[in-house]
Every structure is written in C-alpha cells, then in structure tokens.
Amino acid sequence: MELLKLATEWAKAEVFSTRFFILFAILFLIASIGFWQMGKTDLAKAYIIPTLIAGLLLMTIGLGLFYTKKSRITQFENAFNDDASAFFQSEIKRSESTLKEYTIVFKVIPILIIIAASLILFNNTPTWIAISITTIAMLIVILLVDGTAHSRIVNYHNDLISLDIQN
C-alpha cells in the first residue's frame, strides 16, 4: 500500500507542477495582448507574435501534461490493485526512462538558448530580437518547471528502489 501512496503523491505533485506551465502561458498571452494594445515602437510591436506563440506552446504543454498526469492518478490505483508487483516494475522502468529523457532535455535546451542569444548578436532587427528574447524566456520557463520535475522523479525513483530493498 505504501507503493500506491508514493506513486499517487508523486502524480499529484506533477499535476500541481504542470499548472505552472499554464500560469506562464497566461502571462505570455497577457504580454502579447499588452504589446498589441500598447506597443508603440517597432520592437514592442515585434513581440506580439512571438509572445503569442510562446504562450500557446506553453499552454499546450501545460494542458497536455495536466490531463495526462491527472488521469494517471486513477490508473495507478487500478494497476496497483490488478497486480502490485507488475505495477512496481512498470514504475521503476518508467521512472528510469523519464530520467534519461531529462538528461537529453537539460542538454538540448541550453544549446537552444545559446543559439537564440547568438541570433540577437548577429541579427539586430526588431523581429529577430523579439523572437530570440521570447524564445529564451520560454526555454527558461521550461527549464525551471522541468528542473523541479526532474528533482521529483529522482526522489520518486530512489524511493521506489528503497521499497524494493524492504520487500
């Protein structure tokens, strides 16, 4: 039963975390509307589309993860009740594969941030500056939220392994 509690608590924490994607998406969308309504300079007007796209991307990520993680909570109980041992093994495998995915994410996103920063240096037009800065801001949001999610999955995986030792 401790396994089910551990998995459910992890999933609930993930559901809470995905709400931050939605929160930042709303902030990007509000910024886009603000630039649209109050932007007077070329640079301010150039932010309208990039912040709108970043907001829509973050909203898509947030809502997709939210509903996936939310449905996982009920699936955990069913899977645990069907076969606790198989559920345990599947969670170990899933947490290991997720950890490998985060390794890739934490290598690729900084490279994308460097590329976006380079575009600011080499392309001094308002559109490219707005695209680059908005991209950097969106990628930083992804790193912040994924950083906490990575920490949670590491703790969850370690807790799963310690359960195996006890059994």
Task: Give a description of the structure.
The chain is built from 5 helices and no strands. It has 167 residues and is mostly helical. The model has no long low-confidence stretch (mean pLDDT 93).
Write the layout of secondary structure elements.
Blueprint: H1 2-38, H2 42-46, H3 48-82, H4 84-122, H5 126-166
**Average pLDDT, to the nearest integer?**
93
CA(first)-CA(last) distance: 12 Å
Instruction: Tell the overall outline.
Output: elongated
Element string (H = helix, E = strand):
HHHHH
Which percent band covers the strand fraction? under 5%
Number of strands: 0
Report the major sheet: none
- Computed over alpha carbons, the radius of gyration is 20 Å
List keywords for this structure.
167 residues; mainly alpha; 5 helices; 0% strand; elongated
Brief write-up:
The protein has 167 residues and is mostly helical.
